[in-house]
From TrEMBL:
UniProt entry keywords in alphabetical sequence: Membrane, Transmembrane, Transmembrane helix
Keyword Methyltransferase: no
Name of this chain's protein: Yip1 family protein
Transmembrane segments: 30-48, 68-93, 105-126, 132-150, 162-186
Coiled-coil region(s): none
Organism per entry: Methylophilus glucosoxydans
Protein location: Membrane
Membrane topology label: Multi-pass membrane protein
């Protein structure tokens, strides 16, 4: 697995014969070798952050290993959301007169989500403001990758159509990632505050 290699499909080099001859990864390859491993990053960093940096008092009062369950739920939600977003992207492109395959739509969504997955490493930094700032920058990069994916992966050249499709993808599919990745930061902060309140009692 080399996520950096995927960026070859959204650079000006992607129109060169060598890159055009490069086979695109299939849906199964994207899921197993890219999406699944990258989706584990937020789950692992969340588990490590809360398991090692938050006192045990709050979690000791919960039945079972609730933290592990939350991590698994987050992984499942990410996988489902990526597939749903790819399906939405495919149909949005069809409304613009382009007929990409599900593989191309999934490739575009995977590319756009890589910055958000990687920035989840900053969850280990105990600062909500730093995490919000980093994720804000990652979101801008993701938007730029969607725009380039619309051009190079879907083959749309008209600027108006590129902008419209990019905006539609960001407004519909990007909302889900904002809820899961950024919303999780707020929930962790709430857990820490709640734990502090329980400790005071």
């Amino acid at each position: 697995m080399n996520p950096i290699r995927l960026f070859d499909y959204v650079t000006p080099r992607s129109e060169q014969p060598k890159v055009l001859a490069m086979p695109k990864p299939g849906v199964t390859q994207l899921l197993i070798f890219y999406i699944l491993p990258l989706s584990l990053i937020p789950c692992i960093t969340m588990y490590l952050r809360l398991d090692h940096q938050v006192p045990k008092l709050f979690f000791d009062q919960l039945p079972g290993n609730r933290l592990l369950m939350v991590s698994i739920e987050l992984l499942f939600l990410q996988l489902v959301l990526v597939l749903v977003m790819a399906w939405i992207t495919q149909h949005l492109a069809q409304m613009m007169g382009v007929k990409p395959g599900f593989r191309d739509a999934l490739l575009l969504i995977t590319l756009a989500t890589i910055p958000l997955w990687l920035t989840s490493l900053f969850y280990l930094v105990p600062s909500l403001s730093v995490n919000v700032l980093v994720h804000g920058v990652a979101a801008l990069i993701a938007i730029a990758l969607v725009y380039r994916g619309v051009r190079y992966v879907f083959g749309i050249r008209e600027r108006g159509a590129m902008f419209s499709l990019t905006l539609a993808i960001v407004c519909t599919a990007g909302l889900g990632f904002g809820v899961i990745l950024i919303g999780s930061l707020i929930s962790w902060e709430t857990i820490e505050q709640l734990q502090f309140s329980v400790k005071k009692l």
